[in-house]
Amino acid sequence: MTFPAMPLSLRFWPVTLILALLPVWGVGLFARGLWTPDEPREAAIAGAMADGAGWAVPVLAGVPFCEKPPLTYWLAGASISIFGRNPPAARIPNLLWAALAVLAVGGLAAAAAGGGRSGAVAGLVAGLAMGTSELTAQVLIWLASDAPLTTGVCVTLFGAWRGLNATTTRSRLGWYLLMHAGLALGFLAKNIVAWVFPGLAFIAFLVWEWRFRELLRWELWIGFGLQAVLIGPWIWGVAQHPDARQLLKVFFYDNLVGRFIPVEGVSYQDGHRNWLGKYLVELPAFLLPWTFLAAAAVRRAWAGCLIAGPDRAGWRFAVAALVPAIALLSVSNTARGIYLAPVLPGMMVAIGLWAARHGGQPDRFERGCLWGTGALVVVLAILGPVAGQGLSMWWQGVALNLALVVDAGLWVGGIFLTGLAVRRALIGHWAEGAALLGGAVALALVGGISTGLAVVDRWQDPAPMTRAMAEIAKNGPVAIYQPDETTLAALDWQERLRPNVLTTPAQVVALVSAQPNVRILVKQPRSGPGGPGQSLLDLGLLEVQRLDIPGGRRHALFARKP
User: Fold this and answer.
1) Torsion over CA: 469, 472, 478, 482 (sign)
2) Which of 58, 215, 234, 372 has the largest count of CB atoms under 10 Å?
3) For the packed helices 430-450 and 345-357, what is the interaxial angle rounded to 10 degrees?
């Protein structure tokens, strides 16, 4: 098929990609508070580092918190030190993670498609899919270690592909060093798991391609020295801690092995139980609104991996980055949707390869997938802003505000881009239509989440509860009974408040006897009686105040009966 001259939007596809996604990131990162369950904890740990709690061992409410290495807290803490103790400041590093992730995935897809116009289409579509799919978009704007982990995996895969296909020693060394830098980035974000996913992809690809000689190249292995330089100082810092042996065990055994098999004293499976096939069942929802294009890519991947040709290696690398990791996660002890985010770059690359090779001349099934994707985007472009504005108006009790006008503009923009995508598709430029749909998704996401954020904030952000607790603490002693880490983190982050933590009824009785005017905070069940609050009632205490978050968490204060 003969293509016209490459438009600027494709010629400079990395710039187009970043400009299209910046509004999504801006709203998602900087227009909301901290959302439970993870963000208050991550912000509190980063805030403690900004306050000088130590650089090697993360600390939550004064206690070592060793679920993951401290890269997230280093950068978020540095940002807090510069820009202040607020949620947007803590999330500023996520801009870096998001940009690096989509550029790495786009660069991998572009290189796998052979560069030129095909590479530009593959890179732009793959990057847009990475930046706007339901799961990956959520992870990249979330204050948690999953964002730098996902970015590290993306950078690792990009460096590995370019290193595998380099034609000179110098370029091969450079790309493999980038691969090792990505591995170190992921390791410092979330431990050895950052090596597992790309390592499985690399080994599976070498076996599939029968390229075992690659393992003999010195350029592949010298980068472990770079990893030692980047990771070694942190491990040395942990080793200087008085409880170094226990902390290292928690870092490198409990919090890694415990996610895959039962480990004594580790209870991840209690709240995140897995079952065989869970990830495959949830995968279509995680890929929205690109689910139909993913189906088209998977269909073409079968032939692409088997038929000899210039694209076979690219298809195989995408499949190798996806299938072994999903298989491993499927048999693990625990399961959360976010665990799948570092695996999805392989799917995004496959979507990009499909757009480059088959998007220009789709068959009947693929045309149906494109129309289905367009329909999803139209629904998102219409319902997103309307639902967000409607939710805001319902909550705030207003008939019209500036957000409605903004949403109207975003709605028109989303529909306009969708129309352009359909127009390009009707004249045979299906791949460019898919890229335009990505822009429509970005506008729809901005419109959909911008006006609803204020409402969701009231359900998610624990700031009202922490402010009330700070006022109560000014008038007398406070304690907290059997707290979860989110409540502890919220109090520490927002008010630097660290109440006396009580874990047993005997401790409650002793404290109330010693300080009769103490107020004890308890997290209540979402509905009905029970929980720690019932234990306090059984001890003869009285519920004296509610600190509920409307639509969200329920808290109550208990005190001694007059």
Assistant:
1) negative
2) 58
3) 140
Number of Cβ within 10 Å of residue 112's Cβ equals 29
Token match 């572009």: residue? Answer: 110
Distance, CA of 44 to CA of 334 (rounded, Å):
25
Instruction: List the pLDDT tens digit at each of the 562 positions of the chain.
Output: 344 456 666 778 899 899 888 888 888 888 788 887 789 999 999 999 998 888 899 998 888 888 889 999 999 999 999 999 999 999 999 999 999 999 999 999 999 998 888 899 899 999 989 998 989 999 999 999 999 999 999 999 999 999 999 999 999 999 999 999 999 999 999 888 889 999 999 999 999 999 999 999 999 999 999 999 999 999 999 999 888 888 888 888 776 666 666 656 555 555 567 777 888 889 999 998 899 999 999 999 988 998 888 889 999 999 999 999 999 888 877 778 888 999 999 999 999 999 888 877 788 898 888 888 877 776 765 665 555 555 555 555 444 455 555 555 665 666 666 666 666 665 566 566 666 666 666 666 666 555 566 666 667 778 788 888 888 888 889 999 988 888 888 888 878 888 889 889 899 899 999 998 999 998 888 766 677 888 888 888 888 888 877 666 788 888 887 7
Closest CA to 328 of 235, 381, 259, 426: 259
Backbone angles phi, psi at 120, to 5 degrees: -65, -45
Q: In this structure, how many other beta carbons lie within 10 angstroms of the beta carbon of residue 84?
A: 11
Q: Say if residue 192 is exposed, middle or buried (CB neighbours under 10 Å; 0-12, 13-18, 19+).
A: middle
Mind giving me the DSSP string for 154-221? HHHHHHHHHHHT-SSHHHHHHHHHHHHHHHHHHHHHHTTHHHHHHHHHHHHHHHHHT-GGGGG-HHHH
Q: How many Å apart are CA 29 and CA 263, to the nearest integer?
A: 36
> How is 250-297 classified by DSSP, letter by letter?
IIIIIHHHTTTS--TT--HHHHSB--TTHHHHHHHHHTTTSHHHHHHH
Four-point Cα dihedral 356, 133, 23, 427, nearest 10 = 30
CA distance 558 to 479: 10
Which residue type sits at 73?
Y
Judge contact between 274 and 339, C-beta under 8 A: no
Neighbouring-strand partners of residue 554: 524
- Cβ atoms within 10 Å, residue 236: 10
Q: Cα(84)–Cα(51) distance, rounded to whole angstroms?
A: 11
Cα–Cα separations (whole angstroms), residue 162 to 279, 314, 317, 377: 29, 11, 11, 33
String of DSSP letters for 3-44: --PPPHHHHTHHHHHHHHHHHHHHHHHHSS---TTTHHHHHH
